[in-house]
Structures are given as C-alpha cells and as structure tokens.
Amino acid sequence: MPSTMIESALFERNFGDTQMREIFADEALVRHLLQVEAALADAEARVGLIPKEAAREICRQALQGEFPLDRLRRGIEAAGHVMVPLVRELADACEGDAGGYVHWGTTTQDVYDTASVLRYREAVELVLERLRSLRGRLAELAETEADTLMAGRTNGQHALPITFGYKVAVWCWEVQRQVERWEQAVPRVLVGNITGAVGTFAGFGDQGPEVQRLALAELGLGVPEICWHSARDRSAELASLLILTAGTLEKIAGELYRLQSTEYGELEEPHFSGKVGSSTMPHKRNPSLCFAVLTAARAIRGEASMVFEAMAQEHERHSGIWRTEWVGLPNGFILLGGALAKLDQIIAGLKVNRCRMERNLELLHGAIMSEALMLELGKRIGRQVAHDLVYEASMRAFEEDRPLRDCLLELPEVRAQLSDADLDRLFDHRSYLGLASQLARGPASALLHTVIPTQDRS
Predict the structure, then answer these.
(1) Quick one: DSSP state of residue 209?
(2) How many beta carbons lie within 10 A of that of residue 9, not counting itself?
(3) Long-range contacts of range 316-319, CB-CB < 8 Å, 24 or more positions apart?
(4) Alpha-carbon distance 375 to 426, whole Å?
(5) What is the pLDDT of residue 277?
C-alpha cells in the first residue's frame, strides 16, 4: 500500500517514472543481491576456496530459485538484519552441503553495496539515455529557432535583443556538460566491493583479491583499489550528479514556466484536449508539466543531500549512517527519471509564439537598443558622453512612456551626430544580435548524434 508521493499510485507519474521504479523495486534488489552471491561463489570455486559442485548449486539456486518477498520481509523483521534471512533462504534452498558455502568469507555490506552498484549502473544508463534525448531535442529546437527574435533579459528587465534559438543553445550546452559529467563518473562510481568484514580479505586469505577480481568481472563492475566500506565518496558523487542535473532541469523548466505567464505569452508547454488548469477558473492553461519538473528538482536536492551524511563514517563501518544512501539515492534517481521524461515531453511539444516574442521587444519603445545607440554615438563624441546622453533620453522615455527615438531627437548633440538613416538602422533589432544566430546553430552541428523521429515532435 503506497503511502508516499514517490510511490503513490495516484501521483506516481508526477513524482518519478515506471522504468526507474522498476530498477529500484524490491524484486530487482533481491535479484541483484543473489547475482552477487552467485558471482562470489563462482569466483571462490575458480580459485579453489570452495568446492566447484557447491558453487554450481549456489549459482543454480541464486539465479533460478524463488525467494518470495513476503517471506523475506518476515525474516528481516524477525532477525533484525537485512541480509541474514536471504542468506538463510539461499542456503536452505541448496541441495547437499552446498548451502554451507553460501556467503563464504564476505559480509553484508560487501553484497549490499555491490548489488546497489548494479542498480545504479542501470539507473545511470537510463539517466544518460534521457539526457542525450533531451540534448538532441534542444539542439534541434535551437537550430529551428536560431533566427527567432526575442528580448534578452537580465535581472528581470529587458537587456538586448537575442534569438530564442540562442537561449535554447545555452540550455543545450549545459545539458551536454551534464552528459559528460555522468559519462566521466562511470568508471569511478560503478565499482563493486568484496573484501570481507573490515575490508582486509581475512575471510578469503591470500586469494581474496583474486576472488574479488573474478566476481566483479563477472558482474561487469570495476575493482576498487582498497575496501570502500567507510569511504562513501562514490555514493556522494552520484548524489552530486543528481543534484547538479536537477539544477539544470529546474533552470530550464523555470524559464519555460516564466515565459508562459500571461504577461509574456512567448511559450506554451504541450496542451491536450481535456487538460484542466483550474477546478474553478475554466480559462486557465497552467504549465502543469513544468510544475512536475520544478517539484522534482527541489525534492531531489532534499533526497540526495542526505547521502552526504554517510561520508562521516566511524572506524571501519557505521551502518546507521550508511543506510541514508538506501533512501537518498533510489528516491533521487526515481525523481530525476521522471523529471527528465517530463522535460523531454515539454520540449518535444513546445509551442513558440514568435509574434508575441517580437511584440514584446517593443515594450520599452526602442530602449532595448540603447547600447547600440550609445556605442555608435560614442564613436563620434566619446563613450562616456554618449552614455550620459542616451541615459538621459532613456530615463525620460521610460518615465514618460514615450519612444526613445523621439527623446533622443530632442537632444541637439544627438541630432547633430545621427541621421534618420542612422537611427533607422540602429533601432533595427536584427542589426544588434551579435552572433546569436550562429551560436544557436552550434549545438545541432556539434552534438546532434541521435535522430529524433518526426512523430515524437508532434
């Protein structure tokens, strides 16, 4: 019976997604724990630490046997231990004396950490898949809107003209850097650990390092330089990546949210028949998909941040703070998976109101071109003098709600320097875009590796 928003049958699509939940489901955890036990037994048999016949039976039961969750749950409650009931179940399932060699020389944290890394590997693969999809959509959108005029804004105010494609390209390159961070982290964080109770291989003897190497090779994981029971920086790096990526998604979704407001009206997330914005105001078209991304991003910071608590280990292990990872990382991944899927959906169906973007450029009656005017005038009378003149005219235009051009022409110093043709050119928004259009097309040529099916952009 789900009792949290992350697991809620009612709201699960707003706080995660099915694929990521499956990765962190109880069934998946048990499967991975058993995979680790099987890989361990096989490795130990290969070096002669346990009988080969015992290893074959352990592997057979671990990979094919049935271990009902209800029975395991009752065992965990009765034993007060997360691993002993599964070890007992596996040992009891084995025929002959093979059960006596289950979990040989290892410890709970070895198996649980290594099984967790198997889950993280699947989660990281899904995160990368979705980041790359989002990157591709953004690169495509940036190229499509490379020449679409809009107001560039700083501190909530009009600054200079830009193109919407340029804005999207900035997002795209940030997503690309997140892709690179996840890719670069893979060899550091997808590392198992099978070293025994305090990490010295005491339960394995001299064959310990070889047992670990063989078992982790079978599982497809990296081999640590030394035991990391008490060194939780790998988990913390995953938490950092979750928080960093959530920050990027929050920035993009937040900008989409703001530009959908009535006063801007420049963008709209996908709207479909039957989508309701308010239970009492029928006209509302609220950005509910953006809400989901923004909520998830904030929740990820809360969930993933607890993982850093586990870094403050005592001695060779401290299970009490280690287990914060069991909560923070799965929840963080589930939330991020949902947020990525939602943002991808938004970008795929985003509506761009180009006319509204261009109309909003005129809200300050030409004042958005003040820098271009100042620099041109500065070539003739000096930058600071030009700045003061354009400042004076701009303040009057703002306070009197008049066109900046009219206010400039009231100044003899400006009238003497700039002709009507000069002013026509300087008040043309496209004359002062810099390299916005070229920069907007950059991601498409550099990053668009995956072709997005046309039907996905409908």
Answers:
(1) H
(2) 7
(3) 316/198, 316/199, 316/229, 316/230, 317/109, 317/198, 317/229, 317/230, 318/230, 319/109
(4) 10
(5) 63
Angle at 438 between CA 433 and CA 440, to 5 degrees: 90
Long-range contacts of 96-99 (CB under 8 A, 24+ apart): 96/53, 96/54, 96/57, 97/54, 98/51, 98/53, 98/54, 98/55, 98/56, 98/57, 98/58, 99/58
Question: Which amino acid belongs to residue 422?
Answer: D
Amino acid found at 51: P
What is the pLDDT at residue 454?
Answer: 42
Residue position matching structure tokens 């008049």: 402
pLDDT category of residue 448 using cuts at 50, 70 and 90? low
424 contact partners, CB below 8 Å, separation of at least 6: none
Quote the CA–CA distance of 400 and 23 in Å, as a whole number: 61
| Domain 21-106+194-227 coded CATH 1.10.275.10 | yes
pTM: 0.91
Rounded distance between C-alpha atoms, residue 245 and residue 146, angstroms: 25
Dist. CA 213–CA 326, nearest whole Å:
25
Instruction: Spell out the residues 6+ positions from residue 202 whose beta carbon is closer than 8 angstroms to its own.
Output: 196, 208
φ, ψ at 64 (rounded to 5°): -125, -15
How far, in Å, CA of 149 to CA of 167, rounded?
A: 11
In this predicted structure, the answer to whether residue 450 has a pLDDT above a threshold of 90 is: no
pLDDT digits (tens, 9 = 90+) for 66-109: 888 888 899 888 888 888 899 999 999 999 999 999 999 999 99
Domain at 108-192+228-361, CATH homologous superfamily:
Fumarase/aspartase (Central domain) (1.20.200.10)
